[in-house]
Every structure is written in C-alpha cells, then in structure tokens.
Amino acid sequence: MRTVLITGCSSGFGLATAEYFLERGWKVIATMRTPDEDLFAASEHLRVLPLDVTDSNSIQALVEAAGPIDVLVNNAGIGLLGALEGCSIEAIRGIFETNTFGTMAMTQAVLPQFRERKAGVVVNVTSSVTLKSLPLLSVYTASKAAVNAFTESLALELEAFNIRVSLVLPGRAPGTDFGKNAQTRMQGTIPEAYTDLAQQIFSEWSKPAPVTESQDVAEAVWRAVNEPTLPMRIPAGADAIALVS
Fold it and tell me: Which of 91, 162, 170, 196 lies at a 20 to 30 A Cα distance from 178?
C-alpha cells in the first residue's frame, strides 16, 4: 500500500485530496498547523500530523514521524489580495515563506529518501493565475509562478533518480475557505486610488462563471501521481482548463 503526504489539509483542496486518496486505498498523512482528526471519517490508513511549512524544526519533526512515503503533495498556501502599493514588505515575505519557500523546504526534506529508493513523486499545487494574470494579485501570482519555475527546473535534475515532479494549477475556487482566510491579510492592501479597480474586479467575480471545485483539484492530483505520461502542468477546474484549451 502506497503512502501520500499532503500539506494544508485543514480545508479545501488539501482536505478533498486526502479524502480522495483514502477512498482509493492509499495510506494518507494529512498535515495542518493544528491537527483535527474530526475533519475526516475514521480510517486505519489515515494519520493527521502537525506541520508549519515555514518552520524547519516542524518540517524535520514531521518527516521523522511520517517515515517512508511515496508521494509528496505540496498544497499548503495562503492568499493575498491587494495593490502592490498597499502590501507591506512583511506581508509579501509572509506569502513567499509559505507558498514558495515552504514548498521548497518540504520538497528538500523528502528528496533524500526518494533518491535513495530511486522512486517518488512530488506534486506542487500552484494556480491558474500564473496562466492568465489578474490585477490585485501580483504578490500571490509571483509566489506561485516561482513554484512553477522551480518545479520545471527541479524535474530535470531529478529525472536521473526516477523522481517525477508535476504541477496542478487550480482555477478560482469560491467554494473553499481560501478567500475567507486571506481576508485577515487584506487590511489596508487596497489604497483609495485603487478603489474603483477593486470594485470592478469584485463585480466581475460576482457574475456567474465557471469555477474550480475542490474535487477537481483532488482528481488532478490523483492523475498527476498515477498517470506519468501527462504533461507536467495539469489544469484543475473548468475555468483553469478553459485557459489552456
């Protein structure tokens, strides 16, 4: 029985992906800052462990507790909506610490075991905003675009060790808590000069349009793991797929 370790499983994409793999007979290590086993149905194949991807000690403790794994899914991430003028450099660093450096750190931590076994898969979940840019998301987009570039280069250096690296690019997912969680970082991020632009963007987002569901992402991650002939970049969700079709 194969084992997948998934970061950011407290809600949304991570939770759905953990459930998807459990339903298909995998052992799942679901991580989150504050572990909550009540989020899942009871399963002997599930372990819920603490993880802060911005903390090297937390990462080391997790890898030791998890033991051997076959797949790493880097899903943990946070959002930031706002004009660049309104974003403090501290807030910008915080986005990169989680979205970019956290992904790199987790990948770095599991590579030795993958390399020694000459087997392993890493799936990095980024965003379709890297396919089509949107205003007021410059910092978030940059953090995810960096992961795209990191992943594509990393795949080349790991090919000799039979380690595959893939990208899943979800679209906008209003049905998850991602946007709500990002609101705590929005105070002051839209200066008065950008108010009209922000209202225009919010109005557009309120109109009916194709979106991404958590299940779409879970399915895309599953395919990235189990279908090695797929392209490296896999869009997830109707809106993301439309951008590449």
Answer: 196
**163/115 Cα distance (integer angstroms):** 7
pLDDT of residue 184: 63
pTM over 0.90: yes
Per DSSP (E only), the strands in the chain are 3-6, 27-32, 46-50, 71-74, 120-125, 163-170, 233-236
- CA neighbor of 220 nearest in space, from 193, 200, 240: 240
CATH number of 3-244, picked from 3.40.50.720, 2.40.30.10, 3.90.1300.10, 3.30.1490.480:
3.40.50.720
Give me 211's structure tokens. 């979106």
Instruction: Report pLDDT for 39.
Output: 96
The pLDDT value given to residue 47: 98
Report the pLDDT value the prediction gives residue 128, as an integer from 0 to 100: 97
Using the Cα atoms of residue 236, residue 1, residue 104 and residue 185 in order, give the sign of their dihedral: positive
221 Cβ neighbours under 8 A, 6+ residues apart: 17, 20, 73, 75, 123, 125, 168, 236
Tell me the longest C-alpha to C-alpha distance in the chain. Answer: 56
Low-confidence ranges of the chain (pLDDT < 50): none
- What 8-state DSSP symbol labels residue 185? G
Residue with tokens 């807030």: 91
**Can 140 be counted among the known catalytic residues?**
yes
Residue 97 CB coordination number (10 Å): 16
Every domain of the chain and the residues it spans: 3-244
Options 13, 20, 140, 178, the catalytic residue: 140
